[in-house]
């Protein structure tokens, strides 16, 4: 296995080297990537043309335009993953994405939310977008310490970049889809990014993990043995750090809030049974919503009987 240690990223830009944004814009794309980009731009154009309110059209255009730029950078990173000698460039691109994403969050919170004051549905979606992006940025750049990853071996750096790319791709896809559907509720989200198979696998994994978590919660309701409760805590945290990201943004807060109450009660030796019941009811609702996803309509192996 390779054990190359990467050198630190230079903090001073080389004037002879094109800006990362310029490099990304001219990077060769695969036919599939070009098709996805065309589908995305077409969906955005159709959505913007259907927004009568100039203020809402302007803020939507700004946000969706930023999403297009994010996908350009993520495409560059995806292509770089085929070549190990571009890992430093990918880390630099991730830093650009982080900076621009935080700027987008600031725009949404200070400008877009005010412009959407009379549209509660839009405000809810914008709030979910800022929460979801902020959540993933913290996970990638703070909890998982991507910035210090150059001190590790090449396989570890590669794995960190691959994981960050997957989280950000899912994050920005979900943000784009939810915003487009505010103005076009009938929009077919499964066809936008040409990744139906990926979404199918994510949804199947989500159902499996939700089903497993519900079984452990039921077990803990019947058996309050400390080892059983400790296992429930572990499973709750595993789901939060894993499959929860395949839920819709609007469900993240609900899960994290209830999960925190349950974990806190168990770790402080309090009576957790009422909280476990509420948590189980919430999980059952989530499970039902996931089963109704269009991508699972024709092949969902968990729909029959008790999960």
Strand content: under 5%
Structural class: mainly alpha
Net shape:
globular
The largest β sheet comes out as: none
Number of strands: 0
Question: Distance N terminus to C terminus?
Answer: 41 Å
| Tally of individual domains | 2
**Rg, nearest Å:** 21 Å
Number of helices: 10
Average of pLDDT: 82
Low-confidence stretches: 1-28, 301-307
The oligomeric status of these chains comes to: single chain
SSE string, helix = H, strand = E? HHHHHHHHHH
The percent range for helix content is: over 70%
List the helices and strands and how they pair.
Blueprint: H1 20-26, H2 31-49, H3 54-80, H4 87-115, H5 120-143, H6 154-183, H7 196-222, H8 226-241, H9 249-267, H10 273-291
Helix pairs in contact: 2-3, 3-4, 3-6, 4-5, 4-6, 5-6, 7-8, 7-10, 8-9, 9-10
Description:
By secondary structure, this protein is an all-alpha fold. It has 2 domains: 20-191, no CATH class; 196-296. Helices cover 71% and strands 0% of the residues. Residues 1-28 and 301-307 have low confidence and may be disordered.
């Amino acid at each position: 296995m390779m054990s190359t240690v990467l050198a630190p990223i230079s903090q001073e830009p080389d004037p002879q080297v094109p800006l990362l944004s310029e490099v990304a814009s001219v990077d060769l794309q695969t036919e599939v990537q070009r098709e996805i980009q065309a589908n995305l731009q077409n969906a955005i154009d159709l959505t913007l043309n259907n927004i009568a309110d100039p203020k809402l059209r302007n803020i939507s255009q700004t946000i969706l335009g930023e999403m297009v730029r994010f996908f350009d950078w993520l495409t560059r990173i995806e292509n770089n993953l085929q070549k190990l000698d571009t890992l430093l460039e990918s880390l630099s691109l991730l830093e650009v994405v982080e900076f621009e994403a935080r700027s987008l969050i600031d725009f949404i919170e200070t400008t877009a939310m005010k412009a959407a004051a009379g549209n509660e549905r839009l405000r809810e979606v914008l709030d979910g977008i800022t929460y979801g992006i902020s959540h993933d940025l913290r996970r990638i750049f703070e909890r998982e310490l991507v910035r210090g990853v150059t001190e590790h071996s090449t396989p570890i750096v590669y794995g960190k970049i691959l994981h960050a790319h997957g989280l950000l791709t899912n994050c920005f896809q979900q943000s784009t889809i939810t915003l487009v559907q505010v103005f076009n509720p009938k929009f077919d989200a499964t066809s936008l990014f040409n990744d139906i198979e990926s979404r199918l696998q994510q949804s199947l994994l989500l159902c499996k993990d939700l089903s497993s978590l519900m079984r452990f919660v039921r077990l803990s309701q019947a058996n309050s043995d400390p080892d059983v409760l400790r296992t429930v805590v572990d499973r709750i945290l595993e789901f939060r750090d894993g499959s929860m990201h395949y839920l819709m943004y609007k469900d993240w807060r609900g899960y994290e809030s209830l999960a925190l109450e349950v974990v806190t009660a168990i770790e402080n030796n309090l009576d957790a049974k009422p909280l476990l019941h509420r948590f189980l009811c919430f999980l059952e609702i989530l499970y039902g919503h996931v089963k109704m996803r269009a991508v699972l309509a024709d092949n969902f192996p968990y729909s029959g009987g008790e999960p």
